[in-house]
Amino acid sequence: MSSSMNFESTRRRLTEKQADTVDRLTKAAVEVLREEGFAGLTVRSVAGIAGVAPATAYTYFSSKEHLVAEVFWRRLAASPQPVDEGLDRTGRVVAVLRHIALLVADEPELAGAVTNALLGRDPDVEHLRARIGLEIRDRLATALGDGHDPDVLEALELLYAGGLVRAGMGYGSYAQFADRLETSAKLILE
After folding, report:
1. What is the mean pLDDT of residues 7-25?
2. Does residue 121 lie within any of the structural domains?
């Protein structure tokens, strides 16, 4: 993650000390999710684990959905684009979709929480959802290459979003979701 990303927040620019607090809160959120799941997650419990006052946590995160969406945004933003390695267009797109799908696959409680959080109506979540969507769109557009069909790009975005909801609803694991994305992307692209 670039140093400018460390200081970026959905609500305001952060000093180094504030960025450290936000980092501790996002790490603590993952700890609470592992132990309690999304239903047991509260901003107050995360603040306790992070060693900050609940009021301080609420200055950065308006809700537990906002906090979880931030965790996913940070993981996505910090993750590199999959390496091209001479792949064709379909291979590049599949690599991008698989990479994004597997960002939280090894943490089922976090994965389910991300789906719930990103569906939230909180304005801070809506802001992050837009940033996440733009990042995924940019990665897919790059994988498709210059002169790509915008309808194909939108179909791939819908594929990813629909798959994320299905996985979050428990219709398979996130690893299975990644495999299914590959199969479906090939149907669209070939």
Report:
1. 77
2. yes
CA angle 16, 54, 2 (to 5 degrees): 25
* Distance separating alpha carbons of residues 172 and 168, to the nearest angstrom: 8
Instruction: Compute the distance between CA of residue 190 and CA of residue 185 in angstroms, rounded to an integer.
Output: 8
C-alpha 101/C-alpha 105 separation (Å) is 7
Cβ contact 66:122 at 8 Å:
yes
Domain of residue 180 covers 72-189
Q: What total number of domains does the chain contain?
A: 2
- Looking at every residue in the chain, the average pLDDT score rounds to 89
Do 170 and 76 lie in one domain? The reply is yes
Residue 1 has pLDDT above 80, yes or no: no
Nearest Cα residue to 109 out of 23, 163, 31 = 31
Neighbours of 152 (CB within 10 A): 16
pLDDT exceeds cutoff 60 at 10: no
23: tokens are 């980092």
Contact 33, 108 (CB under 8 A): no
> Residue 11 — very low, low, confident or very high, per pLDDT cuts 50/70/90?
low
Does 160 map to a domain? Answer: yes
Rounded Cα distance between 96 and 143, Å, is: 7
